[in-house]
Design a protein that fits this description.
The complex is a heterodimer of chains A (about 200) and B (about 250). Chain A has about 200 residues and is mostly helical. In chain A, about 90% of the residues lie in helices and about 0% in strands. Chain A has four helices and no strands. In chain A, helix 1 runs antiparallel to helix 2, helix 1 packs antiparallel against helix 4 and helix 3 runs antiparallel to helix 4. Chain B has about 250 residues and is of the alpha/beta class. In chain B, a hairpin with a 2-residue loop joins strand 8 and strand 9. The relative contact order of chain B is 0.14. Classes of the chains: A mainly alpha (about 200), B alpha/beta (about 250). Chains A and B meet through helix 2 and helix 3 of A and helix 1 and helix 3 of B.
Chain lengths: ~200, ~250
């Protein structure tokens, strides 16, 4: 979020977009969780030939729960940033009114505003930069951690696809489930890439 | 920018009216702000909304050092009355805002903290400016349910908030009411619609009739002075209010 010199109103709108993306990832993680549960039952029915697939389904289920937890934390951080950005919006609005007052004022009024704004700007900008920097670093770290986790999910989905090939008469059904895993995780990766992009804008 | 007009001055005791901004956007209702000062002590009455802060601040500072303002009086809670509070607090975080107790926990949404507000009880209160006593006179339900006017017995001026307000057309916006009959047409619709209680109106008319008033200063429109004050009170007393005309 490189927002120090931008319209803080844009930042609020960006947070809304980030939050929508997070919600979609959480929904997909929930879907993977359900899919993994079904896959575990399917693997049990397939018996000995789908033992590996069953293990991987278990791992995918754990992955889905970890991902949900991580995305919830990301959402909380994003909500927390609303307070920071709201303060920036308020600050920008205040600066705007004061700037208008400075232009209109003459004599002592102009002097008072000049003096006031000099002290205020330096302090406010430094504090804004600090807050935004901290927020930026935290969001970057969280998205990077989540991307790593999803990479693991992607590997698990690919492995499940390989294991499906050994599923005997259940092979086609297992292949279908593993493709669904792969597709859903692919969607999550695209969402995360979009999140990364939103953050950098 | 608005103009600062001295409407009363005796010794160090002064009333300034901050009025008529030619650059005001049409979508904003015109407002009057008043500064009562006694020496270096001052109170700003109905300081106005955020949007007009530059105009008020600039006009005021042509006559008075704005850093010395440590008291605000808000007749009620409306945005055109007090939404600039946070800006005044930027200049003086110690500023005190006198307002009906009813609004003391609502108006902090515009700014301020638990130390900012001096709640006025329903019966009214005295506010001292440079030793001069100003009286917060109850005007509840005219139009706000927690509403006060401010009376200065020495200057014989009553700041009457929305009572006496008129929405003046361009070209008829002199500072003082000149032709009462012509002026009052611009006040009629406003009073019929905004003032909601007949009983409150009668009480107010009785109350202010007992005061010695030379000038009645509303927050919108022109100032009534001399005989026009009595005429206004009589006019208001007989006006049917609290109705929506279709």
């Amino acid at each position: 979020m490189a927002l120090a010199n931008q319209d803080p109103g844009c930042e609020l709108r960006r947070i809304v977009r980030i939050n929508e993306e997070i919600k979609s990832v959480i929904a997909r993680a929930f879907k993977i969780n359900l899919m993994a549960m079904n896959a575990i039952f399917l693997a049990k029915r397939a018996g000995q030939s789908a033992l590996g697939f069953g293990v991987l389904s278990n791992e995918l289920r754990r992955f889905a729960m970890d991902l949900q937890r991580q995305m919830t934390q990301l959402r909380e951080t994003t909500y927390g940033s609303v307070a920071t950005v709201t303060a920036l919006v308020k600050q920008a609005r205040l600066n705007n009114v004061l700037e208008r007052a400075r232009r209109e004022a003459t004599g002592i009024g102009r002097g008072v505003i000049d003096e006031f704004m000099r002290g205020r700007h330096g302090f406010a900008h430094a504090r804004q930069r600090e807050q935004i920097g901290a927020l930026n670093r935290r969001l970057s770290q969280m998205i990077a951690d989540t991307s790593q986790l999803v990479e693991l999910g992607s590997v698990l989905a690919r492995s499940a696809k390989i294991e499906a090939a050994y599923g005997g008469p259940f092979s086609a059904a297992l292949m279908q489930v593993s493709s669904d895993f792969e597709n859903t995780i692919g969607e999550i990766q695209r969402s995360l890439a979009s999140l990364s992009k939103q953050r950098e804008l | 920018m608005k103009t600062a007009r001295v409407i009363y001055e005796e010794g160090g005791h002064r009333w300034l009216a901050l009025v008529r901004d030619p650059n005001r956007p049409e979508y904003l209702i015109d407002t009057n702000e008043y500064l009562v000062s006694v020496g270096d002590d001052a109170i700003l009455l109905d300081p106005g909304g955020n949007e007009i802060f530059p105009a008020v601040f600039s006009a005021l500072s042509t006559e008075f050092d704005p850093r010395k303002i440590d008291k605000l009086f808000a007749s009620h809670q409306d945005p055109d009355i007090i939404s600039s509070l946070s800006l005044w607090l930027e200049f003086n975080p110690q500023i005190k805002c006198h307002i009906s107790w009813l609004w003391a926990s609502f108006v902090p949404h515009f700014g301020g903290n638990q130390d900012t507000f001096v709640p006025i009880p329903d019966g009214g209160a005295d506010i001292f400016v440079g030793g001069q006593r100003l009286q917060a006179i109850p005007a509840h339900y005219l139009h706000s349910s927690g509403n006060f006017h401010l009376y200065d017995s020495k200057a014989k001026i009553l700041f009457s908030g929305d009572v006496g307000a008129a929405l003046l057309p361009p070209g008829e916006d002199s500072l003082f009411v000149e032709d009462f009959d012509r002026h009052i047409r611009h006040a009629e619709t406003f009073h019929r619609r905004w003032m909601g209680s007949e009983r409150a109106k009668r009480d107010w008319c009785d109350r202010v009739s007992q005061l010695d008033i030379e000038m009645l200063c509303p927050q919108h429109g022109a100032i009534y002075r001399g005989a026009h004050v009595r005429r206004f009170i009589d006019w208001f007393a007989q006006l049917e209010i609290g109705i929506v005309r279709r």
